[in-house]
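Reopening this ticket.

The earlier resolution said the output was attached, but the attachment link was broken on my side. Pasting everything inline this time so it's all in one place.
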Amino acid sequence: MKRRIAVALFAGTMLLLLTVPQAKADDPIQVADCEEHTTCWTSGTPTAWSDSLSLADLTAVGLTTEGNAVSLQALQDWGFTIRLGETKLTLFDGTSTTTQTLGEFNGSGSYADSYDAYWEIDTVGRFLGDGDAISGTISGTFGNSSVSNSSGVCVALGNGDATGTCAEGVPEPNSFALMGIGLGSMLLALAFGKRKQLTRSL
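Inline output:
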């Protein structure tokens, strides 16, 4: 009986691990997000943002490969126009830092009246990788010298498809179903084991 329970628990655990969405090596990472009806969307002055990058982050997006060009992407998910100030990437190699800067960016403002996942997806610019980098920071502003605020926008670092990244990694519907099956298998195994123990004690 104990062996059967162990097998069921193992199978349920493996099913859970297999169905939870896994990041791909070329998946971009989200570094900033401006939500509609918040300060960055309405402010009279640009709103600063920043994000820390670990060695794992830098490696995942290709910034630890010397000279590799890595895109900064802007995905518009609400009206009206993407407005980004200068974006700075600072890489640290253990002893010193180097900083790269992308200029201000203005989107085309090509949003639709009806809701769509992303009205506009732009490449703001590209940063170059440093083979000695072990960590870094990236920073910028929502709003720039043209307009002090921005449309709703997700900012992502990496060359791949950023739409999944900006959706905050929500599992697909079939993943939820399979996760439920996995949890159900484990609960049934535990319940059956307890019932068997109770029968024997009686």
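Reporter confirms the inline version is readable. The helical segments are 2-19, 39-42, 55-61, 163-166, 173-201. The two ends are 17 Å apart (CA to CA).
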